Structure formats: C-alpha cells, structure tokens
Here is the input.
Amino acid sequence: MSKKKGLSLEEKRTRMMEIFFETKDVFQLKDIEKIAPKTKGITPMSVKDVLQSLVDDNMVDCERVGTSNYYWSFPSKALHARNHKLEELKKQHSEAKQRKVSLQQAVEKAKVGRQDTKDRSSLLKELQALREERAQLQAELEKYRECDPEVIEEIMDCVDLVKVDAPTPNPHLYPHWICPSPEH
Here is the structure.
C-alpha cells in the first residue's frame, strides 16, 4: 500500500478559497476548522495556517467583532482585485512604451553630429593614441615617484619621528660597530 500524499500549500489555499466562494458566507475560525477537513480534505492542523496566509495576502477579509474573528471572501472581491491589478499593469505598460519612445528619440538626437566621417574617425584614432600615450607617461611617472622630493621629504619626516620615539640602545649589550659609544 502506498501512502496518500498530502496537499501542497497552494492546493490548500485554493480549496479554502473554494469554501468561501461556494458558500458566500461569513465564518468563524471554529466553523472553518470543521468544514475544511470534511468538504475539502484540508488537514485540521493546517486550517488555521492556511487561513492566516490567505488573510495576509488580502484574499480573505478578517474582522474582529467583540471577542470573535469573522472571515469572509466573495468572488466579486477576487474579480475586483484582478481588474485592479490588470489596470495597474496596463498603466505600467503604457508608461514603459512612452519611456521607450522618448529614449529612441534621445538616441536619434544624440546620433546627430556623430555620423562616421573621415574627420571623425581620424579624430577618434588620435584620441585613442593620446590616451595610450598618457597611460604610458603615468606609468613612467609612477616609476620615478620614489625620487620625488616631496615623497623623500615625507620619508625623512617619518624617519625623524622614529628616531625620536626609539629608545636609546645600551652600548654594553652591542658591539661598537652596531652601537658606537659616545667615546668613539
């Protein structure tokens, strides 16, 4: 015997919506917990979670009256939601078309004066050559950066700081050629 496979969340949601659309009634949670397992085969343990997911997605309305929560959804609400979504998508589509037309016009306007001519192509080649030469000169300049007087002065300032902060070595611990004594 094979085990019966349970329903997916989407199947449960669809079946739960069928309950509301077929009855066109308002329910309390306890009523739905009784009806859903019997008529639609939704497990009793998952009824509350499925109903809450539908409420979260605005597919089912929920209102608290006194101490009770009432749930309902009518077919007209689903139709109204779909129509609203369709209108919104049509609006986005028309805006995208307008944006496309304006961008095409901008491209055509930008092409004016950029036709491929001999002068333009020679100027572009010259521009590319000058950019390459500039890159080579920048690389060569970077090579000689360590000889830059400003860089050398910064290094000397750092060396002076290190000398000031360094402790004076004990001349008795090092040979005279590492740490000359004040006498030499």
